[in-house]
């Protein structure tokens, strides 16, 4: 399998976020592409590629290395739980809701009766 075809398949996977087994047949066998990916990862290919791209971008745009930020939108903020509040899925649960002030608790207006009793 040509290296360019493997690289195209890996770029396709990164751009579409599809699973390895969902790789279109035009790229070749998904297991073969995954095998090459693992070999390249262990050899440090992607780290060298990232560094080369970063160096080229630095030449073109002059990166301000004294200030950088990382966006981690998918991660949780464990230290900010007090500011964020409870989990949104827990907000609708009855046990977590506070009672209304000035109103009585809900109860049926008619007492329960046995089926055989007359109303």
In words, what does this structure look like?
This protein is an all-alpha fold. The chain is 41% helix and 0% strand. It has helices spanning 3-16, 30-43, 45-61, 81-84. The chain is built from 4 helices and no strands. The model has no long low-confidence stretch (mean pLDDT 77). It has a domain at 3-61. The radius of gyration is 29 Å and the shape is elongated.
Structural category is mainly alpha
- Beta-strand share of residues: under 5%
Based on CA atoms alone, the radius of gyration comes out at 29 Å
Q: What is the H/E order?
A: HHHH
User: What distance lies between the first and last C-alpha atoms, to the nearest angstrom?
Assistant: 84 Å
In round numbers, the mean pLDDT is: 77
Outline type: elongated
The largest sheet, given as strand count, sense and whether it forms a barrel, is:
none
Question: Got a strand count?
Answer: 0
- Separate helix tally: 4
- Ranges where pLDDT stays below 50 over 5 or more residues in a row are none
Secondary structure: helix percent:
40-55%
List the helices and strands and how they pair.
Layout lengths: L2 H14 L13 H14 L1 H17 L19 H4 L35
Helix pairs in contact: 1-2
Looking at this protein, list some descriptive labels.
41% helix; 119 residues; mainly alpha; 4 helices
């Amino acid at each position: 399998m040509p290296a360019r075809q493997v690289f195209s398949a890996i770029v396709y996977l990164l751009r579409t976020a599809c699973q390895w087994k969902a790789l279109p047949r035009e790229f070749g066998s998904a297991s073969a592409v995954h095998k090459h990916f693992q070999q390249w990862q262990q050899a440090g290919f992607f780290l060298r590629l990232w560094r080369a791209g970063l160096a080229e971008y630095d030449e073109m745009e002059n990166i301000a290395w004294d200030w950088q930020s990382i966006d981690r939108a998918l991660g949780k903020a464990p230290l900010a739980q007090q500011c964020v509040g409870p989990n949104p899925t827990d907000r609708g649960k009855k046990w977590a809701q506070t009672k209304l002030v000035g109103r009585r608790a809900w109860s049926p207006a008619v007492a329960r009766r046995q089926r055989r009793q007359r109303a």
